[in-house]
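Bumping with the actual sequence this time:
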Amino acid sequence: MKRWLVVEISIPKGFGEAVSNFLMEQGASGIEELEGDSGWERVKTYLPQNGKEKRVVYTLHRYLKSLRRVTPEIFRSRIKTVSIPEQDWGENWKRFFKPVQVTSRFWVKPPWSQVRLKRGQISIGITPGMAFGTGTHASTQLCIQALEERIKKKGLSVLDVGTGSGILSIVAAKLGVKEVRGIDIDGVAVENAVENVEKNRVSNLVRIKKGRIGGLHKKFDLIVANIDFKSLRRMRRPLLNHLKGQGILILSGILKGQKEGLCERYVKTGPLRFIKETQEGEWVCLTFKKGKQ
């Protein structure tokens, strides 16, 4: 039977968002943020025991050590691990993955939950897997809000970079776009996204493929990328190259301390201009538009 490694980190308050982001970059299957003792918080995640989990835990230790330059209190952080069978992992997911209303229109829910929708509301069913994007994370919610705000007319084409569970591709399809392309370099994420697209009955609009943006040969009216800060810095040129004139670019997976540097990098050499920033907790979503004002 497949097994999972439960990793629980106890850290000083104020560092939960940064550690959560780091774990997602390392392939964590979801983040559970818990209350800790006075002045402390706990973060829990699940890693498949496939040989790679030891490297992730080692890298986590190094990351916490690097944070000591910011606050010496980090040295008191503790990492606890326990191995559990897959059936227990599934039950743990059910305990902390609940339906969430992201906007006045959209709910995101797991398949074992029911939501009583009001007129005009839409529910997105997401099966949790090894892909980021259950709808509970602030950066995902910010991207859904941005998509709802920017997709106002029919016939648009959308590219979802780092699609993860496919949630943003599904939202775009539900908003009435003509075509959605979701890409991810993680094969497991692609399998999870394809499953979610099929269950939400948008396979006629959404195509999910494994690969990088450089492998695409067309431009899009809107691109959304909810990935990590380092990847966003590196991908500026390919993102712009695949965005149509007057196209919209939505970026998230960014902490508020990172936004100024990233925004400057994207707009300083054109042809992009900044149009909006939204924030939830420590997380930021930036929206840009291509072309002159």
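The tokens above came from a reply further down the thread. The chain has nine helices and 14 strands.
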